[in-house]
Amino acid sequence: MNQGFAPVVGTPKSKQPQNPPQPISLQELQGSLSSYFDDVPDPRVNRTKRHLLKDILVIAILSTIAGGDGWEDMENYGISKQQWLQKFLDLPNGIPSDDTFRRVFEKLDPKVLEQKLTQWVKQLIGPVCQQVIPIDGKSLRGSYDRKNGVNNLHLVTAWASENRLVLGKVKVENYSNEITAIPAVL
Q1: Among 2-11, 78-87, 136-145, 169-178, which stretch is predicted with the lowest mean pLDDT?
Q2: Is 142 exposed, middle or buried (0-12, 13-18, 19+ CB in 10 A)?
Q3: Do the beta carbons of residue 169 and residue 156 sit within 8 Å?
Q4: Looking at residues 126-147, what average pLDDT do you find?
Q5: Cβ of 139: how many Cβ atoms within 10 Å?
Q6: Which residue has the higher pLDDT, 56 or 154?
Q7: Number of helices and strands (H, E) in the chain?
Q8: Residue 21: is it exposed, middle or buried by C-beta count within 10 angstroms (0-12/13-18/19+)?
Q9: What is the SS3 assignment for 154?
Q10: Confidence bin at 1 (pLDDT 50/70/90)
Q11: Alpha helices, DSSP H, located in 81-133
């Protein structure tokens, strides 16, 4: 005992170099985005189809990724990027109007669209199952309304830190805590 513990002999654990995900090329993005939405059922009447559903969906998604918030932003994005969009979209009648975006999204089945978006994002980011997924709860500052007695909005978020991508977000119900919302976000 007076000699202490014997030193551990061997190689120290070295952290294996983590290769960050490589960004997807523009050609891969264009091809994958347009092909994932080919088989989404079109809810419109045949006589009202001036624009392809795939074109509408791709412009809407790209506009949202670029920070667009509404139907007008989708139309403005399409107009401003029309030359680039024509390289991989058909756009037989140009860019759809804001009203066209609204009408199409009102009729689309959100479950089908969510499924297609999830498949596309999985293909983009690769397997996330080997990453550590931080889960965090936050209160949105300024989301309360004292006049009407509405409390802050509390959210629990799952985050893929290597990809810098929010995987899921769930509202925490009133008079509850974050722990009850974690299974829903998972």
Answers
A1: 2-11
A2: exposed
A3: yes
A4: 74
A5: 13
A6: 56
A7: 7, 3
A8: middle
A9: strand
A10: very low
A11: 82-85, 98-107, 110-125
> What sign does the dihedral 113-87-47-98 (CA atoms) show?
positive
- The SS3 call for residue 171 is strand
User: By C-alpha distance, which of 176, 177, 178, 158 is closest to 167?
Assistant: 158
Residue located via tokens 């403005």: 76
Residue 20 has a pLDDT of 53
User: What is the rounded distance in angstroms from the CA atom of residue 59 to the CA atom of residue 97?
Assistant: 11
pTM comes to 0.61
What does the alpha-carbon distance between residue 96 and residue 183 come to, in Å, rounded to a whole number?
Answer: 40
Residues 6+ apart with CB under 8 A from 172: 137, 154, 155, 156, 178, 180, 181
Q: What confidence tens digit (pLDDT) does each residue in 93-102 have? A: 999 999 999 9
DSSP letter at 46 equals G
Rounded CA-CA distance 102/73 in Å is 11
Instruction: Say if residues 137 and 172 touch (Cβ distance below 8 Å).
Output: yes
